[in-house]
């Protein structure tokens, strides 16, 4: 999804008012603002040519993970740039222009950037000190319901909880072994965000409950929740046996014995139905409701493949091969990475994706990598190859303008990123 102002406002609506705890940010030292001026020359190790203020770590993480997945060894300076963005306490902000300065109370760290960085660096290997600190920080900002919000202290949402689950799995940590103070696991948080079968959009995931506690089906959250319920990260392999329990029929499952496998199966069925007519998911942006959402569709292909529904993923995959070129070129490295993940998940050659070489196109957006000895890809659980805001108000709350800023980034292939999430989204 290409982020626009209206999406940012909707995302802000979903977040403002939910943050009641002080942000557990970083070190008690001089603050570092993630601002980047229009005249500033961006680091040579960074992927993408647009302002990285709100998505630098996210797009870098996806780019490095995608290169690793297709057997390209990322440039050392690209990896160094990502590791250098880490705060001393392990958290990552979307972008720190001066990474040599210590993080402070005003450094706007978030769970999504941190979790994406963990997934990328764990896949690459050799960065245990960075990833272990990041995981420790993620655990420290877990909510009592077992989940995570975008910003520390924010209400849990499906997308943030799912990307953190992917980070835990990448670090070989079972999410069931990460209970909150109330003994709730990340999977408990996802189950609470699954729309009941007898309600409108039953089987889908909601982004967050509304003010009255109601859950509204959200296609973007459903792609994330499906992967999270399966314990999968941003990268999954075609024919992954972990998805067998989610490859059931279309009947929505519920009841007192409702499991995360049931939630995954329900989510997969919902996405299958949403994609059946056109082969793509639609945008939730005001005035663009009938327009395709390329990023969310790519994520849906990955999620369906993870659920063992590769045949259902075929139609949206074919649509992406035919229609995603202009979107990806405009959106940049994160979009190319999402398409590579979709190709990889379905056993499709990313070097011949509808006639396009996604690997070459991604490489052109950043420092040159080099071919590895063997193509790297996800394997069984335990193999590292598989593992793949704020205005700093005195009360520590998330600023509307920070969230809007996240959403104003041009050309993010959003997927899991907070700015593309509208809790009232329908397919």
TrEMBL record:
Residues 1-26 form the signal peptide. Keywords: Membrane, Signal, Transmembrane, Transmembrane helix. Residues 380-391 have a biased composition (Basic and acidic residues). It comes from the Bacteria. SUPFAM superfamilies: Terpenoid cyclases/Protein prenyltransferases (SSF48239). InterPro entries: Terpenoid_cyclase/PrenylTrfase. The keyword DNA damage does not apply. Gene3D superfamilies: 1.50.10.20. The chain crosses the membrane at residues 399-418. Residues 358-394 are annotated as: Disordered. This is Terpene cyclase/mutase family protein. It comes from Streptomyces sporangiiformans.
